[in-house]
Design a protein that fits this description.
Elements lengths: L6 H9 L6 H13 L4 H14 L3 H12 L14 E5 L7 H11 L4 E5 L9 H6 L10 H11 L1 E5 L6 H12 L6 H13 L5 E8 L8 H17 L3 E8 L10 H12 L5 H17 L6 H13 L2 H12 L10 H4 L5 E6 L4 E6 L1 H10 L16 E3 L7 E2 L4 E7 L2 H13 L1 E4 L8 E5 L4
Parallel strand pairs: 1-4, 2-3, 4-5
Antiparallel strand pairs: 5-12, 6-10, 7-9, 7-11, 8-10
Helix pairs in contact: 1-3, 2-4, 4-9, 4-10, 5-12, 5-14, 9-10, 12-13, 16-17
Length: 440
């Protein structure tokens, strides 16, 4: 006899901390698409999970059910299907470098990216700064680009984990976004829908991250890695420092210029190191090399011989962007009308930077969204950002601002200046705080 699913009984179990059956979780999530699960049911569910949590096995079941609410990609390619997910930060343009590097090393990267959230920049917004680049490419173009070039980076389509979009909107409306089980299911349902063989996570920790302390970052990393591996995708992660902008640039088009400089050999040391380490983890995860040291060498080689830059250029062209972007960025990337230096008003060694404040300064200029429907100004931001450890004299340059108006120069410039803290010396903080292997 077929068991009857009663949503109120299912919700009572979640409310009381009792693990429901896998079938009931699957039925509940499937009902989001069919209409059998009402918004009231979803609201009760996310709040009950927020308050009571879910067992690890239940999070795996939930993640797979949300993944299966839409299309799940299947591939028939001659190399591993790999991807990376970052929890977000300021000046984090790693994905623009990492995808082409992995493709140049023999992997395939079908990366589904998102827009900026809060003070953090989004990979999708950075690519949107490139004229003609189609972040909304259809499935046919997306798959062809991955197959032919090895890498494609676009936005989420409506066919990918659609139940997550509905749940996230209700989580946002019910103050339950910060639930660890729901964060885990939301992130992984979309990544696992890509049909991956391996996934590497970059869990940011610090003033510019959503997880500003190590304990929370470690809990998120552990949850993501355990659930992803439980769902059948080999996953490892790095907990990395986000107590200052990762690159020396913050802002969408400004960060694209920073990446182009990177391809040309002018590289931010911290950005390069994080990219190399994440790529090395991915190559080992995908079985393309045996150990991390060999992987690092391979990554550095494709940076230095131009093969990764070539993949980047081909991907941009395949997805509608200009074929000579690397050679002629000024021809295509919009420039802000005002470029001026933001100067220090005191002397000392930079000992800390409020990275969140830097990200918010970009938003103040229109380089991020205050509301989901806001239009972004891709030209504004900062570059030449002085990192922690820089010895500063009064009047020295902290950063160069790319602004649309003098009012923005005054307001965002003050926010940037106020984000800097000084002392006699700078702390010696590791860039990679901890590695978490797939079997932990």
């Amino acid at each position: 006899m077929k068991n009857t699913f009663l949503p109120q009984e299912f919700l009572a179990q979640i409310r009381d901390g009792i693990s429901p059956s896998a079938r009931d979780i699957q039925t509940f999530i499937k009902g989001i698409s069919t209409g059998d699960t009402s918004p009231a049911h979803i609201g009760a569910f996310v709040m009950a999970v927020y308050l009571k949590g879910l067992a690890k096995g239940d999070i795996v079941t939930l993640t797979k059910a949300v993944r299966d609410s839409g299309d799940v990609m299947e591939w028939d390619l001659d190399g591993p299907i790999l991807d990376k997910h970052s929890t977000g930060g300021v000046g984090d343009n790693v994905s623009l470098l990492l995808g082409p590097v992995i493709a140049a090393c023999g992997g395939y990267v079908p990366m589904i990216s998102g827009q900026g959230l809060g003070h953090t920049g989004g990979t999708l917004d950075k690519f949107s700064a490139i004229p003609g680049y189609n972040v909304g490419a259809d499935n046919k173009l997306f798959r062809r680009t991955v197959k032919d070039i090895g890498c494609a980076i676009i936005g989420q389509t409506g066919a990918l984990a659609p139940a997550d979009k509905v749940m996230y909107a209700i989580r946002s409306a019910t103050a339950s976004v910060s639930s660890l089980p729901l964060i885990t299911a939301s992130i992984l349902s979309k990544k696992l829908a890509e049909g991956l063989d391996g996934l590497v996570l970059d869990i940011k920790c610090g003033s510019g991250a959503f997880m500003d302390n190590f304990e929370d970052a470690k809990a998120l990393a552990k949850s993501l890695i355990e659930v992803a591996n439980g769902a059948g995708v080999k996953t490892s992660g790095l907990i990395t420092d986000m107590n200052q902008p990762l690159a020396s640039a913050a802002g969408n088009g400004v960060e694209v210029r920073n990446v182009i400089n990177h391809w040309r050999g002018v590289r931010d040391a911290r950005l390069h190191k994080i990219t190399v380490e994440l790529c090395a983890e991915m190559l080992v995860s995908g079985g393309l090399v045996k150990d991390v040291d060999t992987a690092r060498t391979k990554v550095e080689t494709v940076f230095d011989n131009g093969k990764a830059a070539e993949v980047f250029a081909r991907m941009v062209t395949a997805l509608g962007g200009p074929s000579d972007l690397i050679q002629n960025p000024d021809k295509y990337l919009e420039a802000a009308p005002i470029l001026t230096d933001i100067k220090a008003t005191q002397s000392g060694t930079v000992s800390a930077i409020d990275a969140r404040a830097v990200g918010n300064a970009v938003i103040v200029m229109g380089g991020g969204r205050k509301k989901p429907e806001d239009t972004i100004d891709y030209a504004v931001g900062f570059d030449r950002i002085a990192p922690i450890g820089t010895k500063i004299s009064k009047g020295d340059v902290l950063a160069r601002i790319h602004a649309r108006s003098q009012n923005h120069v005054a307001e965002a410039g003050k926010m940037l200046r106020d984000a800097y803290m000084y002392s006699d010396s700078a702390p010696d903080s590791p860039l990679i705080i901890e590695r978490i292997p797939a079997n932990k």
